[in-house]
Amino acid sequence: MKEGVILAGGEGTRLGENRPYNKHLTLVYDKPMIEHTVEQMKALGVDHAHIVSSTSGVADMFRVYRDEINGLDVSYHEQYWPNGAAHALGQTALEGAFPVLCGDTYFDPPLEPSERPTLYWNEFEGAQNHSVYDPETNIIVEKPVRDIGKRAIVAYYYDERVYDVIKTLEPTERGELELIDIHNWYLEHGVELVQYEGFFSDMGTPEGLLRVANHLHKKAHPEVQKAEEAVSRFLGKANLRSVR
Q1: What is the pLDDT of residue 231?
Q2: Residues 6+ apart with CB under 8 A from 196
Q3: CA Rg, the chain, in Å?
Q4: What pLDDT, on the 0 to 100 scale, is given for residue 243?
Q5: N- to C-terminal Cα distance for the chain?
Q6: CATH code: domain of residue 92
Q7: Which of 37, 59, 190, 216 is found 20 to 30 A from 235 (Cα to Cα)?
Q8: Which of these, 73, 66, 61, lies nearest to 23 by C-alpha position?
Q9: Domains in the chain: how many in total?
Q10: How many Cβ atoms sit within 10 Å of the Cβ of residue 12?
C-alpha cells in the first residue's frame, strides 16, 4: 500500500477572516480545498493518506468525510499544539519514499510521482513569500529578503529518515519546527530537485484561492479562455497601432 501525508493545520489567518470550521473545508470553485489535494494524492498513486490537523480540524473533517475522501482511504492525526509543519509531520510514521503535500496547494497537471526523496520547485510571482531555493549556495531560504530567484519549494517526497531529522530540529524564532530545516537536511544528504512547470497556486490566501477558482472556471468553460485570448490579441494590435 502506498501512503502519503497531507498537512492540513493552520488557522486560516492568511485568508483574512474567521471561520467556524477548518480552512481546508473552504469551497474552492466546485469542491472543498482538501478534495483538490486528495485528487493530487490519488494521481501520485497513493492508496492511503494521513491527514494531520489540529484537534478541531480533525473533528471537522471526520464529521464530513469519515475515513474516505473521494475514494481515497484516509486516517487522521491530531497535532495538539501548533508547533509547526515539521512537528505535524512527526505525528505520522511512514516508511520508504512518500509524498507530503500541504493541504492548501493546487497543481494542474498533477505532480509526477517519485521513488526517492524529492523537492519540487515552481517559479511564480510571489515566490518570495515561500521557501525559495538558492542554486548559488544550495540552500533553501524562508521568505528571502534579497532576490535569489523564484524557485519556490512547493511539494516534497521524504523517506523514513525524516522522523529522525525531526527529533534533532530546534524551534525557529516563531517557536515552531519548520519544514525548511528538513529540506536543507536533504539537500546536504542527497535529494532530487525537480522543476514543476504546470499551474501551481497556494489556496491559503484570497489571491491564490481566486487564481485556482478562475483556472478551474476556464477549464470548465473553454469559451472564457478563448474570449480572453481574443481580447488580448485585440489590445495587442491596438497598442501596436498607437505606437506607430
Answers
A1: 59
A2: 107, 111, 120, 121, 122, 154, 155
A3: 19
A4: 44
A5: 64
A6: 3.90.550.10
A7: 216
A8: 61
A9: 1
A10: 19
Enclosing domain of residue 114: 3-243
C-alpha cell of residue 210: 481566486
User: pLDDT digit string (tens) for 55-101?
Assistant: 999 999 999 999 999 999 999 999 999 899 999 999 999 999 999 99
Q: How confident is the model at residue 204 (pLDDT cuts 50, 70, 90)?
A: confident
Task: Tell me the per-residue pLDDT of 15-64, one tens digit each, with 9 for 90 and over.
Answer: 656 666 788 999 999 999 999 999 999 999 999 999 999 999 999 999 99
For 194, residues 6+ apart whose C-beta sits below 8 A from its C-beta are: 112, 114, 118, 119, 120, 121
Sign of the torsion angle spanned by Cα atoms 48, 188, 197, 142: positive
